[in-house]
Records
---
Amino acid sequence: MSIIAPKAFISFASEDRERFALDFAARLRKCGVDARLDLWEIRTGESLIQKIFEMGVGYADVFIVVLSSLSVQLPWVRELDPGVVERMEKATRLMLVVIEECETPPALGHLWGAQFAAGATYDEELKRVVEVIFEEMRTKGLEDSALEMARPVSQLHPDLRRGDSLVLAALCAECVETGLLAFRPYLLMERLRAAGLSAVDIDASLKFLDELGFIKVSRANLGQVLLISVSTTVVHRYLGESRLRYKEEVNLMAGKIVNERALNDGVLRTATGLPEGVVRCILRFLESEGFVELLVIDKNAMFVKSVSARLRRLMG
């Protein structure tokens, strides 16, 4: 059991308080879950959505919605349209707890639910709920560190979701680490799955990023990803957000090329003290902007073949 208790917010209709919610929360607490109950009781006429976005649903590892034949008839259930559910899922894990035979609201139909209705074994279902909650806390901890990695690219496009940003940032980091803008992504895929993304989520993000022109994905006939190429501009912006002195580093390299005739990646690494991958990515950027023309030999060495008059004037 974790020293830090996972938080679970439990939303329920006031009619289900005495007959289920109080005992359920007490049992969760005995299992080591910090179950929060009172703030999330929905009384007649109250808005669940207003509570959710005023009180910060994202502070919970799991948000549990208790469904019963009574609760599904109340107005707050109609507030849970697909758009609202999507907003909630970006902030936390949603889970259903069904305590009796009832019709699940359509917007919640895709969610995993524990069945406490007649015929179900209470202790077994409770155990499953607790396992899911602790697994979610573990995954969220992994994601927190991953989200910090995703930060440099999160503002590149307004439609990027958390998973898209994480995938794109991981691709950029791979470019910077290897100095290559195209690579086979097998080990990278494993790291993304370890960060909590499913294979389906990763593939969906790759397709979306490809449509945006941020990356180019080459696939086999059956759809397997063979090679991923990342846009030079995207890597440049990633470096600009992730390296505090990146602009100075670009200018330093340009100066070394023009004024000291440091014309290959090895000499530039020595002259600037920058990592190999950063040097190679900056050279690619300078080429994309028309400042230099590169000659690449077997992906192992990069030479500056020519320098533009514009760069010479800027650095002169």
---
Amino acid sequence: MSDDPAPRHPMHLAAFLIAGPVSHHHGLWRDPAGAVPFLSVSHYVHIARTLERGLFDLVFFADRLAIADRFGADKATGLRHGDQDSTRLDPLPLLGALAATTSRIGLGATRSTTYDQPYHVARAFQTLDHLSQGRVAWNVVTSMNDGEALNFGLDTHLDHDTRYDRADEFMELTAKLWDSWAPDALVLDQGAGVYADPERVRYVDHDGAWFRSRGPLNIPPGPQGRPVIIQAGASDRGLAFAARWAEVVFTIGPTPADLRRYVDSLRAEMDRIGRPPTACRVLAAVMPFVGATTAEAEDGRDRANALVEPLAGLSTLSAHANLDLSTLDLDAPVDRLEGTGTQSLSRLAGRIARDEGLTLREIGQRYGRGVLVPQLCGTGAEVASQLVELFDAGGVDGFVISPALLPGSFEAFVATWCPSSSAGAATGRSTPPTPSGAISRPGRRRQAQARVVLAPDEASSAVSQASSPVNVTATIGLWATAVSRSTVLR
């Protein structure tokens, strides 16, 4: 690998998690090595610290707002077999715990624009941005199915394009609320008794088709000004939304050609609306199985995939598509899958089933082993080569690493990729193709700057603290670290 060409720009890494018993891989909770303590905060703290040590840019939590009950119009299948919605803790409180126990990695959580209110979301993420010292991100979703609607007093989920219309206005109002305090509005002049400059805090007076809000937000600007926005829109309407708002896009593509088509479409839409391509990074989901030998990695993959119950995958696919698949013959070939939920995933599942001649049971097993996320397999050097190849051929900016097992998948990956480790040396690179630079937000990021007036006896202490390496925090990039990305975080 030492002769491999250098990547065209820094390769970014994010980690995908669900605060529950599975991730994309539905066999996760059945790991023979032991029960996964998914109800324990220490579980997530350990994972986040592992990822931080491995120089990841970001860990983010997907979320949904209902137990899956689209398959058979009942909750039984998903709960019995442990599908993707069988348990989901609220990720926002978890971010608070991770903010207190990590120092550099970005922290992302999901909130729905269909079943929440802009003021509430703006306030929650602004709070977390302060608590994390500028490391928080919002994964914006429009939600998926009627089960979520029923939990919020509605009979049916909004139709696909209407959800995005609402989401656009949701984002507009949230941005207004985040910007309702000028960066220098917080004065804190203790001698004069002036807390803030009221002329630098404004009402937003929003009155739209979906929302009304006077504002302003009751929290000063966070270190980032606004949290980083993550999105995963892949339908035509979803892609237009991502092109307008996203700074990180998470996508699933089975082949490099699929990824390249998506990246090209997103960049073209961004260009059409006047956003530079550097304003958004596209990260492709992959699920690596790393072993000391190729055979060991393949054995680990096969054992993990054998844990997947096809009905668990079908329950999740039904929830994603907002479609009851129990009405179809389990052992008959699948020709087409169309629902009113996540269009891109249901169409992709239908395409794969049709192209490969899979039955419904077989596509359920395939979906359950990763929600169509490509699985990579090999030694650390082999997986690194596969990622570099996919990075270049797919035109992406990096990868979302999805675990098959926890915490084992991340531990194995980090052991391989940390420059100081013996496994990292096996890649043949002095610096492995991990994140080595910031994901920038040109022309938009701002630092909240309070015009703090300190009492004389506090001034020297403040200067000392400001110059201390311990207090250097991320303010530019997705999250730039306080040390070189080529150095293992201690």
